[in-house]
Design goal:
2 domains, 6 strands, 251 residues
Amino acid sequence: MKQFYLTFQNGSVIPEELGQYKKGSALLSQSSVPAASEKGSALLSQRQDAAPVIFPPLLSWTHYLTLMRVDNPQARAFYEIEAARESWSTRELERQVASLLYGRLAKSRDKDEVLALAKEGQLVSQPRDVLKDPMVLEFLELEERAHWLERDLEQTIIDRLESFLLELGKGFCFVARQKRVTLDGDHFYVDLVFYNRLLRCFVIIDLKLGKLTHQDLGQMQMYVNFFDRHQRDEAERALRLAAGENRDGEG
């Protein structure tokens, strides 16, 4: 309990509008309980006249035990806000901490944006904010093989679809697998199609084992044009998961 108090001396960092509580109303405060010795009383103030320490009832004690193990205060604040906003289970919170989500997001941001992560969590202000880059897919539990087939990777993602959606980013919904695209009488098949409710657009994933080629990029552009023309959505985003990604060929 002492370690908890030392770690969260100022209470929760969850924004009022997210926690639906009001600063100054004590949810977990010594001053709010009549008998300190009574079973179930929460002691989070050392002095009787100390300001109330607020903890909205969004996260469990186990969540905070996990957060206490995060040494970086900014990272800890980020994980607390995101766990509340995204309704992460304790297991999912542990996974996001272990996969260094905060560090991955902070890499592509300047100092002010990193501070915003700690104060507000991950807010979506531009399309790139909904995707995690890079993604960590250890939950797929891919075994060591001399050769993997793309259909095997696709099946593994489908088998663990819930975890994949969480790792993909914010606001994603599954639409189709092996979506048929017909152009000039020829049939093509998109491996995975998702929809992002925040961007209001489709996200196309074509799995590729090996080097990303210009031919692959051309094919993905064809898929994007098809969805733009026939699905009548506002915008499309194409994403290719490639082992050995060739970033110099992107553009």
